[in-house]
UniProtKB/TrEMBL annotation:
Biological classification of the source: Bacteria, Bacillati, Actinomycetota, Actinomycetes, Kitasatosporales
Keywords: DNA-binding, Transcription, Transcription regulation
SMART domains reported in the protein's UniProt record: AAA, HTH_LUXR
Any one Gene Ontology molecular-function term assigned to this protein's record: DNA binding
Record CDD domains: LuxR_C_like
Domain HTH luxR-type: 867-931
Record Gene3D superfamilies: P-loop containing nucleotide triphosphate hydrolases (3.40.50.300), Winged helix-like DNA-binding domain superfamily/Winged helix DNA-binding domain (1.10.10.10)
PROSITE patterns reported in the protein's UniProt record: HTH_LUXR_1, HTH_LUXR_2
Alphabetical GO biological process terms: regulation of DNA-templated transcription
Highest taxon listed in the record's lineage: Bacteria
Protein's name in the database: OvmU
Protein species of origin: Streptomyces olivaceus
Pfam family, one: GerE
Coiled-coil ranges per UniProt: none
Amino acid sequence: MILRSVMRVTVGRPRGGQQAVTAIHHIDDTVDELIERERALSALDAALRRSSEGRVRMVLVEGAIGTGKTALVWRFLEQAESSGVLCFGVHIRPDERSLSVDTLDRMFRNVAVPHLFRTAVARRLSALRDGCGTDGPTLVSQLTELAADLLDLAESVPVLLVIDDIHHLDTDSLHALLHLLPTASAGRVLVVLTADESRQPLDWRMPTGLLMRPNFQRVVLNRLSEDGARLAAARRLGEAAAEALPADLVALSAGNPLVLEYLSRAYEATGTGYPQGYAQAFVECLRRCPPETVEVVRALAALGEQATPELVAELAAVDRVDVDLLPLTNAGLLDAQSFRHPSAARAVLRDMPAGVCAGLHRRAALLLHDEGAPALDVAHQLIQADEHELPWASELLLDAAGEALALNRVGLALECVKLAGRAERDPVARAVVDARLSRLEWHLKPLAAARHVQSQLKDGAAGRLSARDTLDLAWRTAWFGRIDAVEPLLSAVGRTPDGGDVNELVRWLAFTYPKHTFSRGPVTAPPSSAQAEPWLHSASSLAESLIGAPNDQGVTDAERVLQSLALDHESLWSGETAALALLTLVYGDRLEAAVAHADRLLDEARDAEMPTWHAVFRAVRAEALFRQGDLPGAYDEAVTALAEIPVQGWGIVVGLPVGCAVNAAVRMGDLSAAKRLLGSPLPKSALRSRYGLHFLHARGHYRLAVGLPQAALADFLACGSLTEGWGAGGVGVVPWRTSAAEAWSRHGNPDQARRLLRDQLAMLPPSSGRARGQAMRVLACVSRDTRRPQLLTDAVDVLKNCGDKYELARALTDLSVALRQGGDQLKARRTARRALHFAKAAGARPLCDEAALYDQEAKAARLARDEDEKLSLLTGQEIRVAALAVEGDTNHEIAAKLYITPSTVEQHLTRIFRKLNVKRRDELPWQLDTWSA
């Protein structure tokens, strides 16, 4: 064995190819690194035995933060104390840069020691308090005398002195503390020190003579290798769980035992939440670091992606960032001066006192602003600091909001505008910021935007809003049903220099609220072809095409708009135009195109962080699916849309998804779901809007389904009353005349039903296949029996080309009944089978049951007919023999009743079996007794 003046035990993974040499253990086996840590404890035990034999020993346990030094030495202290050793221990806190009387007092307090020694310690500490403190010769003198007192005490009992984390002390205090360590070779004293790998290696700050003492020994705890980390996890979680550990969990630990413990604990508790454990471990390790390291890490976390060594150093007020980060870098918690996981940065900032954290972000904002950083980076710091008093804050925050919107980060833009609004003192500027804030809030939280409507109406009345802001306010006011407040806004738009044509807004409003008459009000602005809101013209044009009867030109215009439109965060009218274009395709029976465009807009709204528009587009998509006959798909889409934003946030538009979901539920046979949905809260003005048509129409069909035709008729006629100003328009929105005719028919008034249906068919253009097929089907129900099959056949021909599986199934079911009543049983059965196929595809359970019933009845009739054909092959005598056989008579009983021989009966039965294709008596058809009669 090689003898050295400094004996060393290295535990864990050796770094840099360094050889581990010790006079007690030579550890070079890394297969089971946890056992090596037990050997480190054994090394301390051996040192304690040597000191108990009368030789003073000193052991320095070193390693990075979290490698287990503190746990090791305090576990050793407890074991030594239980064996009769007199133990003193103290932990140097990170903020204790210089040695204090309090530190020494903590070391010797609460330990049962002889009175003489306690008196001596009290005298030494009193001298330090009354003298020149912990500086100068007095401190060295008193510590030297304390070391002598310890040697005297050790004559009667072995003494263990543990000083944990001595690296926190500055060089002068460290040199002074070393005078407390007994230097005599004879004495039953063991001194155990621990130190982290800090900014400066401890070797540079400790007296060389101490390091060269023959009684001085070093134990180094290194981080675990990947195999060692897995083994440690296995011991905590069990073999099976450790095998399933994600590879990135082990990699994230970087072999640090403390981090691995936190990660394993979090993984054990959640199965997936182990990054949270990493954040907790990081904060725990940071609390053990020197103040300079803490400040640098906080600066690093606050600056985030903008962190550079120069900016971090300036923000943390340090000279060398890399040096101050050494404790965490050596511990494997940082990777090239960056966090190994973002959860650590968030945890560091959360762990700070709120005021301190705000101050740090404020300084970071000033620093980044001075450095000319992008507005969004500076704004992020201002938001975190809740700082809006800086003279340049408002303008920068509004610029940052634009940058955030360009990145589709609406939430961040909203935070910027909120803070900018608090910075504004001028009423006009504040009104402009509030208008922008409400617009952005509506994209995310419509209800939050609704709360600002009243104050913005006051701003509009005071002339503080631009024409574009006024138009947006008019849109939101109409969305939430405040039609009483829209009229003054029309006048306000007309008075603005950039007001454009107020008629565009009036045209749109007339479509949204068909029963309300809006006037332009006085217009003082000169006529201009330019508009404050670029999408207003498209919206009003689409509204006008919807008001009129569906036509190819309107569909073409909608397609063109959808191909060129991109959602604009700064305009609510862009989303309104997209929704109107989609509805134009839906009402015009261009359902596949509507679904395709809706899918694209849903992706765009999701990427642009516009959940409100996402919900609206999903509701329109649900309506398209409903008109395609995909009832489960329509129901799921509509219900999902309703869940994306609160029901109250839908405003008047809630009628669209609720109506679609109710209609789908009724046709699927789920009346309880329909009833529940009809209880959704609707604004009073919703039933006066176009969206109220969908709700009223759906409620009418629910009432028909539960046997209330008169109440259903009231709902359908209310739809008609709402659209009476549209003339021939509105036929594509909801087929209220067809539905009202169905209600009249059930109410016993087929004449009124026929009148409505004739009106409906006269208004429909040739392209309205779905509505035409529906009307023809209901017309057949109120027509003569002789006309019914042809009308239903025509309805089927129309509906099979429009792609509505449900309406086609209904028409086929009715046609099957009509054919059966007309005597064409074979065709009726085939038609019923087709109806059943489409009813299943549509998910319409009641219609499936109805079609299946007709199919079964036709099948039973066919079987009866087949049996009759077979029985017609039998002679009269054979029928009488077979009938008696069905009743259970034997051959002799049959012969006696018919006055023939049993042999003749046997011959008859043989021929009967052959003709009817049966083998036994119990297979004979039961109809024989009827035939024999």
